[in-house]
Design goal:
CATH class: Alpha Beta
Number of helices: 8
Distance between the termini: 35 Å
Radius of gyration: 19 Å
Strand order of the largest sheet: 3-2-1-4-5-11-10
Shape: globular
Order of helices and strands: HEHEHHEEHEHEEEEHEHE
Strand content: 25-35%
Length: 268
């Protein structure tokens, strides 16, 4: 390999790392601002908006006596749910200190007796924990700026035969917006792309990468996971706000398109 080619690859790598660090910094600052808006949202036993997954408690599997890690634990309601169901140990990780403060208050007793342990940082950063039964993420893992690195971490956390379960907006849903009385495709489904959401939820903006379903399958299998189940659940509950078609999560849109995708992955 020529010295010029080596130099270009090193430069490309440094640029990639710089961009990822920038995205993480902006996302952290925004999540610290918008945390109150998401209190209690995206938490077990549901796996996404419109109550999806509530009727499938078997997805998380056996809880009593088992150990868990939640990526993007938010306000800690999923952790509380697992502890109340008899989980032996639950770790929580979130990039936002504001989110973790909610988690601490909600789970103070379980933290005090050692059943809950929290980590503040991006999921791309590896943490030191004992091998666990299950890693899960309810609308959190999709925020990763480096899915390959994050999945490598997840794989290392799991016991042999362990399970990784996560949910996220289906790319088809994110690519459609309500404009002038119609639902319009605004992005090509075929393009994996990073988008900057300016002033997202009143924060400093957010960087998020949309990936088509086939890309997610490829990334997961490349990381050594076997996709045991893939689900595209229908909406089950409707809120007063969701009747407004202009809202991102409107019931009109949800009845037309796939809203949530859920991957159940086993450590090979």
């Amino acid at each position: 390999m020529s010295s010029i080619l080596i130099f270009l690859r090193i430069l490309e790598y440094k640029t990639r790392i710089k961009n990822m660090n920038k995205s993480l910094k902006v996302n952290k600052e925004t999540w610290d601002i918008v945390a109150p808006q998401f209190y209690g949202h995206s938490s077990l036993p549901e796996w996404g908006p419109f109550g999806v997954g509530r009727d499938s408690p078997e997805l998380i599997g056996k809880i009593k006596g088992r150990s868990f890690l939640e990526l993007g634990c938010g306000s800690g309601h999923s952790i509380k749910y697992l502890i109340e169901k008899g989980a032996k140990k639950v770790y929580g990780m979130d990039i936002s200190e504001a989110q973790l403060e909610y988690t601490r208050k909600l789970n103070y007793a379980a933290i005090a007796d050692g059943r809950v342990e929290l980590f503040n940082g991006p999921m791309e950063k590896k943490i030191k924990i004992k091998p666990i039964d299950t890693v899960f993420s309810v609308y959190g893992f999709g925020w990763t700026v480096d899915p390959e690195k994050t999945l490598k971490n997840i794989y290392s956390y799991l016991k042999p035969g362990g399970r990784f379960i996560w949910s996220w907006d289906h790319t088809i849903f994110t690519n459609v917006q309500y404009q002038n009385g119609k639902f319009v495709v605004v992005y090509s489904y075929h393009d994996d792309k990073e988008i900057f959401l300016k002033n997202w939820k009143g924060g400093k903006g957010a960087y998020i990468t949309y990936r088509k379903t086939a890309t997610w399958f490829q990334i997961l299998t490349n990381a050594g996971f076997q996709v045991a189940q893939y689900l595209e659940p229908k909406p089950r509950t409707v809120t007063k706000e969701s009747h407004n078609p202009k809202r991102y999560y409107s019931i009109q849109k949800a009845k037309l398109l796939l809203v949530t995708m859920i991957f159940v992955c086993d450590k090979a």
